[in-house]
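User: tokens in, sequence out, please.
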């Protein structure tokens, strides 16, 4: 789902690309002035098909063998299809597993509804990524056409008010691709079509297959359906897929293109367990919030051809979770539905409290937006407590712990393309992030912290560093990109002040690349707890801007006046400002990464070098 490049020594470096340049299709925009529903592609055609009485055979209608080429399939009686050793589960759809076959029984009320289909890895080969990594994210619909059910891929890249004259032209220019076609095997109660979908998972179309990431050909003789878990709003499926994959190009010399395999090199066998999470999107999309470039948020874009502007208007909507107050009249209220992150059972037990603390470190920021206990950390249930619980489930957000030697962590998320609502987020913590943190901390502030005089670091200190990483990556999954101008917004001398740092931190945001406070000197007596970045004033400001309910505003445009006034606090409060290096690689001095106190970068660097000199005699005793 991302077109990202790995920035080896950058916390969340991958996350920026993963969240800011994803493939999610853009969302629709409310119609001019009124927030009317947006016309999505094929809505009229799909509804007409569903409403066609001729296409609505009664349950148990007589049927025969599936139709031959050029003929409509002939459904059979329900009892002839769903019989034998059947494992039936009720939920969004009824699912029936009969041996290696999987049937969906789709209620007529769920046809033509928007669903999110998230394809991810559950198990993979060494060197081919990690469980939980996303392969594809898209909106789909199940649509009945006579005695067939079509699986369509829906795009919201271009939209229109359905009542506008241009609406039909927009629909015709955005026809939904058919990912699969399934004969109706039978009809259940209330004319619910029953379709056999095993091949959708054992031999999926390339868009939702592992071959989208690992080039090759899936072998159906070595691929088979694994399991299905059915819930009220989502269906989770898994299949083993074996691929005759093209050999991976080999990186021989840094900086040069990878060497391609020699002609005639045989394919390599790779076997994956792929997980598909199909989640019903909200019947009523969340009210979208228009992006303001002064405040950092990931966003999605789409063209609305029914806007009053005399041109095709591209609209940008920020990515954020849906938070609604239980008590709308209260200044601070608990949310109707809090944001919940689970801690991966693979996490080392001694680190679990620190991971939970990194998640809940954001509670103060949400209180600034008017929400108490808006973000909550929970430990994942055991297999005995919930055998169907899966970290790949798109209705669960998880801080994953991955067996990787990569020294990094990432924070991707998945959004509802109609509104920008974040639906799923999975922070990925690579095991060797602890090694990176050790050397960062030792080289930057080891001269200030007696605990760092002997390596490895104490568990309590390493745990605090993991908490910092988790909080940074969770920030990405809340919608926040890096803010690398932030550290230059504090006076350079202030980051040496005990009182300043205690109240403000040594950088205004945990989303900067300001690492540890190497500007501080031993004589400054900065408390050790304040050498590590934490959620700061900019984070409270940005969460308030992105998540606060705007009184009386029922459309994105109606919110703009209130949001503009809030953004203008940047005029007098410099640490509310946002900025990153531009896309062309031109980096203003105020946005250098890895810098602390860069309002006066030369002076601050000189102080950092003093601490490095203090470290030299400590090197041998420490190691």
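Assistant: Sequence out:
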């Amino acid at each position: 789902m991302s077109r990202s490049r790995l920035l080896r020594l950058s916390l969340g470096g991958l996350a920026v690309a993963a969240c800011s340049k994803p493939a999610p299709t853009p969302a629709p925009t409310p119609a001019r002035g009124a927030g009317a529903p947006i016309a999505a592609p094929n809505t009229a055609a799909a509804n007409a098909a569903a409403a066609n009485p001729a296409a609505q055979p009664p349950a148990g209608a007589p049927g025969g063998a599936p139709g031959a080429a050029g003929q409509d399939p002939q459904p059979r009686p329900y009892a002839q299809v769903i019989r034998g050793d059947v494992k039936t589960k009720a939920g969004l759809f009824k699912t029936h597993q009969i041996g290696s076959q999987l049937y969906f029984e789709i209620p007529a009320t769920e046809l033509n509804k928007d669903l999110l289909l998230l394809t991810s890895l559950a198990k993979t080969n060494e060197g081919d990524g990690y469980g939980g990594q996303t392969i594809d994210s898209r909106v789909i619909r199940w649509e009945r056409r006579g005695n067939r059910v079509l699986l369509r891929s829906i795009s919201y890249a271009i939209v229109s008010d359905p009542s506008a004259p241009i609406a039909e032209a927009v629909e015709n220019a955005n026809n939904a691709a058919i990912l699969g076609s399934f004969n109706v095997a039978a009809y259940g109660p209330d004319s619910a079509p029953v379709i056999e979908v095993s091949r959708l998972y054992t031999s999926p179309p390339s868009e939702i297959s592992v071959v989208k990431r690992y080039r090759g050909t899936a072998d159906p003789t070595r691929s088979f359906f694994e399991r299905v878990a059915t819930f009220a709003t989502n269906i989770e499926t898994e299949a083993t897929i074996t691929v005759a994959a093209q050999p991976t190009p080999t990186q021989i010399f840094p900086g040069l293109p990878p060497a391609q395999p020699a002609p005639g090199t045989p394919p390599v066998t790779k076997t994956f367990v792929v997980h598909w999470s199909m989640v019903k999107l909200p019947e009523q999309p969340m009210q979208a919030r228009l992006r303001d470039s002064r405040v950092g948020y990931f966003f999605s874009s789409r063209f609305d051809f029914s806007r009053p502007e005399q041109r095709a208007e591209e609209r940008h909507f920020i990515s954020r979770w849906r938070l609604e107050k239980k008590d709308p009249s209260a200044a601070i209220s608990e949310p109707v539905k809090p944001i919940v992150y689970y801690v991966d059972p693979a996490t080392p037990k001694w680190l679990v409290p620190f991971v939970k603390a990194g998640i809940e470190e954001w509670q103060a920021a949400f209180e600034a937006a008017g929400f108490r206990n808006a973000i909550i950390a929970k430990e994942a249930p055991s297999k005995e407590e919930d055998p169907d619980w899966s970290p790949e489930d798109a209705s669960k957000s998880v801080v994953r712990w991955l067996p990787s030697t990569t020294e990094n962590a990432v924070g991707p998320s998945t959004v509802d393309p109609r509104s920008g609502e974040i639906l799923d987020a999975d922070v990925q913590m690579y095991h060797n992030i602890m090694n990176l943190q050790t050397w960062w901390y030792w080289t930057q502030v080891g001269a200030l912290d007696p605990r760092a005089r002997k390596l490895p670091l104490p568990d309590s200190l390493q745990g605090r560093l993991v908490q910092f990483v988790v909080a940074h990556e969770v920030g990405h999954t809340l919608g926040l990109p890096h803010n690398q101008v932030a550290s230059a917004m504090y006076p350079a001398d202030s980051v040496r002040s005990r009182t300043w740092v205690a109240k403000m931190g040594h950088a205004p945001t945990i989303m900067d690349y300001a690492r540890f406070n190497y500007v501080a000197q031993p004589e400054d007596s900065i408390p050790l707890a304040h050498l590590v970045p934490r959620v700061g004033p900019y984070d409270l400001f940005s969460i308030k801007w992105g998540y606060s309910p705007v009184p009386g505003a029922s459309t994105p445009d109606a919110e703009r006046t209130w949001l503009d006034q809030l953004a203008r606090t940047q005029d007098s409060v410099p640490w509310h400002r946002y900025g990153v290096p531009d896309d062309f690689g031109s980096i203003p001095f105020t946005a250098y990464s890895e810098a602390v106190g860069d309002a006066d970068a030369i002076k601050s660097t000189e102080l950092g070098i003093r601490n490095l000199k203090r470290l030299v005699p400590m090197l041998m005793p420490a190691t």
